[in-house]
Amino acid sequence: MNKLFKKIALLALLLWPIVVSAKEGIKLYDEPRNVSQRAFQHQSGQMLKLADFKGDFVLALFWSRDCGPCIKELKSLNNFYKETSSHGVQLVLLSPSNEWDSVAEQKKFLKKYGAPDVPFYIDERGRLASDLGVYSRPHTVLINQNGQEIGRIRGSAKWDDPRVIDYIYKLKEKSSNS
């Protein structure tokens, strides 16, 4: 009983920074799940699939320009990206194609709200989001180095909080060992 309590307390401490800021919290799966291989477009025009990021730990973050919490977290996402991108963590920021008239418009929007460094991707009519069962924003799908989904974060987070960054690194390490 005492061992179980310690494990629960440790898990609660690790999850606290994300759960406090995420409206619906985090859900980790017992077993990894396969993900859709629907293509999406990089800001450069290159077509990619989530499998193209194999070898890295991926946060596929679905957002919308009409989502207040999404906009609020952009600056912290920029800081998170700058901190983690050289450490095997890829941020894949996806928004539906029907929200933008052009790549330049999306780039200008991200710069205006503090995320000029984050590479962005376009989800054609939200089809990848639909394939993954993502119907609310912001919504982050966590993908391990083998290209499998290991969990989700529903709601926004303070991504540049050192505790959140540390938690993502721990998830990355844990998922590479399993």
Overall structural domain count: 1
Strand order of the largest sheet: 1-8-7-4-5-6-2-3
Strand percent estimate: 15-25%
Order of helices and strands: HEEEEHHEHEHEEH
Number of helical regions:
6
Shape: globular
**Can you tell me the CATH class?**
Alpha Beta
Query: How large, in whole angstroms, is the Cα Rg?
Result: 16 Å
Oligomerization? single chain
Question: Per CATH, which architecture?
Answer: 3-Layer(aba) Sandwich
Helix content: 25-40%
Low-confidence stretches: 16-24
Question: Quick check: average pLDDT?
Answer: 89
Compact description:
The chain is of the alpha+beta class and 178 residues long.
Describe what you observe in this structure.
The protein has 178 residues and is α+β, with helices and mostly antiparallel strands. The protein has one domain: Glutaredoxin (3-Layer(aba) Sandwich). The protein is built from six helices and eight strands. The relative contact order is 0.24. Mean pLDDT is 89; it is low at 16-24.
Q: Which SSEs are present, and which pair or pack?
A:
Blueprint: H1 2-21, E1 25-33, E2 40-42, E3 47-48, E4 57-62, H2 68-72, H3 74-84, E5 89-96, H4 103-112, E6 120-123, H5 127-131, E7 139-143, E8 149-154, H6 162-177
Parallel strand pairs: 4-5, 5-6
Antiparallel strand pairs: 1-8, 2-3, 2-6, 4-7, 7-8
Descriptors:
38% helix, eight-stranded mixed β-sheet, 178 residues, alpha+beta, Glutaredoxin
